[in-house]
Design brief:
Length: 224
């Protein structure tokens, strides 16, 4: 998939990039870490927030419980993140990078656009099952506009990246209608993934077998 575009162009908050050996990314922060140890502390805070939200839910999680799980003072959390909402947003921005990198690697050998749709869906499902950060954001209801800095902030980025992939790799005819169709496809694919995770394996396979062709049919008019 295309390189992740930063959704924070023009944001007034400070941003930090993680240290070498960790996932690079940018989060809006109150204060810029000046040492690798401080950058690792930011990652530890995000990991603790993921675990806390997965176990207790977004509403029950608190900055003090997140600090305790991260084994740091609560003031250290507030040094970088003003509130819990900002923490969850930072997790989603880290997720965007991880998801984009995983999809890019898997699509490198894909030659058919329908397979590209399936690989993208399967990667989302796999990360939802195995990555606590993914589960944390899903369970917190980040799709709620109240938890986004701007409407559609995260879904729009994923849709834009996939639209670029389909036009550059598979010859899709770019247009406003095509971009809207990609957004619809991404949204339906995520809903399909969430539904399959709630079902037993046999029923999940039935739902996926019915849902995948629906996603393909949406995109077919725009591809050669």
């Amino acid at each position: 998939m295309m390189a992740t575009l930063s959704p924070f162009a023009g944001h007034n908050d400070l941003m930090v990039s993680t240290t070498a050996g960790e996932e690079p990314g940018a989060y809006p922060l109150r204060r810029m870490p000046t040492q690798d140890r401080a950058s690792r502390q930011v990652e530890r805070i995000l990991d603790a927030a993921c675990a806390e939200v997965v176990e207790r839910g977004y509403d029950a999680a608190s900055t003090s419980s997140i600090a305790k799980r991260a084994e740091i003072a609560v003031g250290s959390v507030y040094r970088y993140f003003p509130d819990k909402r900002t923490l969850i947003q930072a997790i989603e921005r880290r997720n965007q990078h991880r998801y984009t990198e995983a999809v890019r690697e898997r699509l490198a050998v894909v030659a058919d656009w329908r397979e590209a749709v399936d690989v993208t869906l399967d990667t989302f499902r796999e990360m939802h099952r195995t990555d606590p950060g993914f589960r944390a954001v899903v369970l917190s209801g980040l799709g709620d506009p109240e938890l986004e800095a701007t409407p559609g902030e995260f879904d729009d980025q994923h849709s834009g990246e996939f639209a670029e992939l389909l036009t550059q790799r598979f010859g899709a005819r770019d247009s406003r209608e095509f971009r809207l169709t990609v957004t619809l496809t991404i949204t339906m694919g995520e809903a399909l993934s969430h539904l399959s995770e709630r079902l037993d394996p046999e029923d999940a396979e039935v739902v996926l077998a019915q849902g995948r062709p629906t996603l393909h049919r949406l995109l077919e008019p725009h591809l050669p």
